[in-house]
Specification:
The chain has helices at residues 14-36, 41-70, 122-132, 147-173, and strands at 6-10, 76-78, 82-85, 91-94, 98-104, 109-114, 136-139, 143-144. By secondary structure, it is α+β, with helices and mostly antiparallel strands. α1 packs antiparallel against α2 (41-70).
Length: 174
């Protein structure tokens, strides 16, 4: 029996805290711009720096708030075909190409090592393994998931995906 697919969604409750913070940063940035044009040179410099910082932080948080609010699709999907990360350029990695898959709960990420036969750039792969600990990493920050359920789904799907690719390889050899 095949394990059921697991879909990881973005957390929505963080919007409750992020939206007021973004609005506050926009107000601080607007007030700082107002102060830039009404004060002396020292007030203008301090207000300019304050406006820059407030608008940079508010813009960054605001972008992620809008993205989380508008996008209702699952961010990561673990199914019988492979591992899908819809947020990054990695995209889809089929199970037959995955050598090892590990859930790193401390860093909130999935570490994926690609089998040697499927690596297209060995030097880049070795560098990524050295710096990040794996060929590909799937960030789990900001997603709703149960670590135990995710680890079990990764192990079961990886085991079934490897077994399926072995059966297909032996069937094609015969």
């Amino acid at each position: 029996m095949l394990p059921k697919p697991l879909q990881l969604q973005r957390r929505r409750w963080t919007l409750v805290f992020s939206v007021p913070f973004t609005a506050f940063m926009a107000l601080v940035g607007t007030y700082s711009v107002y102060l830039m044009f009404t004060g002396d040179s020292l007030v203008m410099v301090v207000a300019g720096c304050g406006a820059f910082v407030a608008l940079c932080i508010g813009g960054t948080v605001g972008k992620s708030v809008l993205e989380a609010w508008r996008n209702n699709d699952p961010a990561v999907i673990v199914d019988r075909y492979g591992l899908h990360d819809t947020r990054s350029a990695t995209g889809f990695i089929p199970w037959d190409q995955i050598e090892t898959v590990k859930l790193d709960v401390d860093e909130q990420r999935i570490l994926v090592n690609i089998a040697t036969a499927h690596r297209c750039r060995p030097l880049a792969s070795a560098t990524r393994r050295l710096l990040a600990g794996a060929d590909h990493t799937v960030a789990l920050g900001g997603l709703c998931y149960s670590p135990r359920e995710l680890a079990r789904a990764l192990a079961e799907h990886h085991r079934n995906g490897k077994a399926g690719s072995m059966r297909n390889a032996t069937a094609s050899d015969a």
